[in-house]
Design a protein that fits this description.
Elongation Factor Tu (Ef-tu), domain 3, Membrane-bound Lytic Murein Transglycosylase D, Chain A, three-stranded antiparallel sheet, 415 residues, single chain, elongated, 14 strands, alpha+beta, seven-stranded antiparallel sheet
């Protein structure tokens, strides 16, 4: 045994981590694939795989952590901490290319990594065997040439984890025309029941005359009829045939305003027939069965243009404004609950019409995964954080723009 081998063996025994690995390294091949699909190998997982492929890594530094918000209070000892999520990874590599063709390897790395935009896929030599590949963006580089390293270059390369795709696809869902119309009808049903109940409770508390109570109930019944007519026309015009039955069934619990929902007339063979509404309100089962059996006739009689839909929506929101003013005039501060219900309905009318008449919905449903502010909601959905005001306008029922409880479903702009 040569002296250097013996000394090397003694050094292995002195190493508290054991003898260095021999032969195959316990690493993955380091690669980067850019947004265009071009790939580059910056590290081979085997020793000297090819005399012409000299690549190596001095070290990797992978930084991360948790985002901790610190809250301090005057005249109170200590502080309160809030974990608001994991930080993204920062991957830093010291990559070495050497050998007679190191310039070609360097050029390939420059073109594929440094001179390319967009999200890429990083296979990390030490972490990918455990966690798989990472979605990243390249950020920083440094090139180092040394006088005592011929035909070689050291590249310091920094990649940042990019979770954009996971955030936008897992936490949000674009609202389809069909689902939004059903949601609008359900909001209409809930609002009518809740407003009528609130009117009765407050009227009894304030000993209001029955004439005032009846007038306010007539107002909500009129709005219900007006908006159910609009939602029915939206469904007849913009919904898919497969969802039409489901949308019509969603309107069944509605009561009041039946006479306003006549869908018009139809002439066949010189005979004029009066048609019931597309989305029936309070009819008996026999009449309802007749409507469903002739659904296409009712659909044809309820077509509406985009301009007409917007005009009808504005009329509906004007009627809601009048109802809010009436509630304040008659009930004062006791009208707050009723006003909140009306405002929610007004937002529902707007989002329902937008979803129906747009080629792609302009609103998104987002369910918060943690307690968060509206600025964070905007950021997580690719919006400017200052658009928290737009989100607040679409969700008037929120108690605070700085604290939205986990599990809250919000309506937010799609872009």
């Amino acid at each position: 045994m040569a002296l250097e081998d013996l000394l090397g063996g003694l050094g292995d025994l002195a190493n508290p981590f054991g003898a260095p690995a021999q032969g195959q390294w316990n690493l993955a091949r380091g690669t980067y694939v850019n947004a265009d699909g071009d790939s580059v190998v910056f590290f081979f997982e085997t020793k000297d795989p090819d005399i012409s492929q000299k690549t190596g890594i001095d070290q990797t530094v992978d930084a991360g952590g948790r985002r901790i918000a610190v809250y301090e209070y005057p005249y109170k000892d200590g502080q309160r901490l809030d974990d608001i999520g994991r930080r993204g990874f920062n991957f830093t590599f010291n990559i070495k290319f050497w050998g007679l063709n190191y310039q070609e390897k360097f050029k390939d790395f420059y073109n594929t990594v440094i001179d390319s935009k967009g999200i890429g896929t990083l296979t990390h030599p030490t972490l990918s065997p455990i966690f798989g590949s990472f979605q990243v963006r390249f950020r920083d580089f440094e090139f180092l040439h040394r006088y005592d390293e011929y035909n070689a270059i050291t590249i310091k390369a920094v990649f940042l984890e990019d979770s954009t795709q996971d955030i936008t696809t897992q936490d949000s869902a674009v609202v389809s025309s069909d689902s939004q119309i059903r949601a609008g009808l359900q909001t209409l049903v809930d609002t009518q029941a809740a407003v009528s109940s609130a009117i009765s409770a407050v009227s009894a508390l304030l000993l209001l005359p029955s004439s005032i109570q009846n007038a306010m109930n007539q107002r909500i019944n009129s709005i219900t009829g007006q908006l159910s007519r609009l939602f029915g026309q939206l469904g007849a015009t913009f919904s898919s045939d497969s969802s039409l039955q489901a949308i019509s069934q969603a309107a069944l619990p509605l009561a009041g305003g039946v006479t306003e929902l006549n869908s018009g007339t139809q002439t066949n063979n010189n005979t004029t027939q009066t048609l019931p509404p597309v989305f029936q309100v309070g009819f008996d089962p026999t009449t309802d069965a007749a409507i469903q059996n002739n659904l296409q006739d009712f659909v044809n009689a309820n077509q509406i243009t985009q301009q007409q839909a917007v005009f009808s929506a504005n009329q509906g929101r004007a009627a809601i404004t009048a109802a809010i003013n009436e509630a304040y005039n008659n009930l004062g501060n006791y009208a707050d609950e009723i006003v909140l219900l009306y405002r929610q309905l007004s937002v529902s009318v707007q989002t329902t019409v937008e979803a129906a008449i747009s080629a792609q919905s302009k609103v998104i449903l987002y369910t918060t995964t943690d307690d968060m502010s509206l600025r964070r909601v905007a950021f997580l959905n690719g919006l400017d954080p200052d658009r928290q005001n737009d989100i607040e306008a679409l969700n008037p029922y929120l108690g605070s723009i700085n604290f939205v409880p986990r599990g809250t479903t919000l309506v937010i702009p799609a872009a």
